[in-house]
Design a protein that fits this description.
The complex is a heterodimer of chains A (212) and B (237).
Chain A lengths: L1 H21 L10 H37 L5 H15 L4 E10 L5 H13 L4 E4 L2 E3 L5 E4 L2 E4 L2 E3 L3 E6 L2 H15 L5 E11 L12 E2 L2
Antiparallel strand pairs in A: 1-7, 1-8, 2-3, 2-7, 4-5, 5-6
Chain B lengths: L1 H22 L6 H45 L1 H17 L4 E10 L19 H13 L4 E4 L2 E2 L7 E3 L2 E4 L3 E3 L3 E6 L2 H9 L5 H10 L4 E10 L12 E2 L2
Antiparallel strand pairs in B: 1-7, 1-8, 2-3, 2-7, 4-5, 5-6
Helix pairs in contact in B: 2-3
The chains are: A alpha+beta (212), B alpha+beta (237).
């Protein structure tokens, strides 16, 4: 009797709870406190990133100005920015600390997409899967049970390499793995040094033109 | 023993849920009300700070670019590096682009208020946007933006509670517009393929999410609104 009453109350509260979450119009005033707290966390992280970006740009500007004032031009500062962008777009081999994630069975395109998404949000900077470099625009698709990366079939075991701060990456990888692990074995290892030698040649712009 | 354990677990859950429930009630105690208000004020302050920092980053980007342009005028060697840099900027999404393409729109539907339906299928989730963007890349898109935010190599779509965030904690809200540059027919065929976005299309029929797409001969996507910070990945050699 007591158990069923509690069950009833629990069921009711769960319904009300889900309802109240569903009813939010995503305006701040109507959000639950958990959502607001998570948002604060993300805003803090983003603002810290922006402060670091501003500091890096400020340094770059000073260096360029100093060379110009001295009557020359600072090729090194421009080269450095070029190398940074090449790392972002996958145009050059890169190395650094990160994670090696081994997935021992087949997974679907959206599962890989979710994993990459979480790792990017956690500061993942460079990725490769079974020897294929991946950036945000790399097409990922499932053809039946086969996973296609940039048009190439990859099969299990999948070895995903990601470069970034392992402290940040590992909790994100753990969370994604916990949903995959109901079906396939996932093994996550921190690495102090990962090398990704594969590069991506940029898709030529055929339809898009510079400028707004 | 098992019954007792379930009872205490249930009590624990009920208490927890009740607590959460009551926190979101408007008739909270004044302390709770003050705390709720403080939380929301923090968000407003952080979002103001976020906007100011972005403006600062954009101003610095313009100064750096002016310095680079001036340097390139001084030296032909620098000019060559600068040409390569401009090319990488376009690839990375730091340059606004225009051209033909496809626009996809969708929005949160209407809560069916059906006690038997707890699926939340009537709201657009971050996975829906991620799936659309992923399909557009696979269909040959050359550039993509969501609600005016350029999708760049570092972009991730994620949830902070009920909020969908991309690029430096930008909150995306319904209605959603995804703009892709590329061959309009190829992009439309990709999105129109009945095997693609099947779950979203089915929810669109049930909850009226207003999912539609339109080819266009001239669309534009903005540049990424800040810059890239690479801390761990060092170029080899």
């Amino acid at each position: 009797m007591v158990v069923s009453l509690i069950g009833l109350a629990l069921g009711f509260l769960v319904v009300v709870q889900l309802r109240s979450q569903a009813a939010v119009a995503r305006t701040l005033a109507s959000q639950d406190n958990t959502s607001v707290a998570l948002l604060i966390n993300d805003l803090n992280r983003a603002n810290n990133q922006l402060i670091q970006q501003a500091a890096a740009l400020s340094l770059q500007e000073t260096q360029l100005r100093q060379a110009l004032t001295a009557g020359g031009a600072d090729a090194q500062t421009i080269s450095k920015e070029l190398q940074t962008l090449r790392a972002v777009t996958g145009a050059v081999p890169v190395h650094g600390p990160g994670l090696q994630i081994r997935i021992m069975g087949p997974i679907m395109d959206f599962e890989l997409q979710d994993l990459l998404n979480s790792l990017r949000a956690a500061g993942g900077e460079a990725f490769s899967l079974n020897g294929s470099r991946m950036i945000g625009s790399t097409p990922i698709a499932s053809r039946g049970n086969t996973l296609m990366i940039g048009g190439h079939a990859v099969s299990a075991p999948l070895v995903l390499l990601v470069i970034g701060d392992p402290e940040q990456l590992e909790p994100a990888a753990d969370l994604s793995a916990s949903s995959l692990q109901t079906r396939v074995q996932v093994d996550i290892q921190r690495k102090s040094e990962i090398t990704i030698t594969e590069v991506i040649s940029a898709r030529p712009l055929i339809y898009a033109q510079l400028g707004r | 023993m098992t019954v007792l354990a379930s009872v205490s677990l249930a009590t624990f859950l009920v208490t927890g849920l009740a607590a959460t429930q009551f926190r979101s009630q408007p008739l909270a105690s004044s302390n709770r009300l003050a705390r709720d208000e403080a939380l929301r004020q923090s968000v407003n302050q952080l979002e103001d700070q976020n906007r100011a920092l972005k403006a600062r980053v954009q101003a610095l980007q313009a100064e750096v670019k002016a310095g680079e342009d001036e340097s390139a005028r001084r030296s032909s060697a620098v000019q060559q590096v600068k040409a390569l840099l401009d090319e990488q900027k376009a690839i990375a999404g730091l340059t606004a682009l225009h051209g033909p393409g496809l626009t996809i729109v969708l929005r949160d539907g209407v809560d069916p208020n059906d006690p038997a339906d707890r699926s939340l299928g009537w709201t657009i989730h971050y996975q829906d946007l991620q799936d659309i963007v992923s399909l557009l890349w696979a269909s040959g898109a050359e550039a993509v933006a969501v609600n005016g935010q350029r999708v760049v190599p570092s972009t991730s779509f994620h949830y902070a509670g009920v909020n969908i965030l991309i690029n430096n904690a930008n909150r995306l809200t319904s209605p959603y517009t995804v703009t892709a540059l590329g061959d309009p027919s190829t992009l439309a065929n990709g999105v129109g393929d009945p095997d693609q976005l099947a779950e979203l299309k089915s929810r669109n029929r049930i909850y009226r999410l207003g999912l539609s797409w339109l080819r266009s001969t001239r669309l534009s996507v903005p540049a990424y609104d800040t810059t890239f910070l690479v801390k761990s990945a060092q170029p080899l050699g």
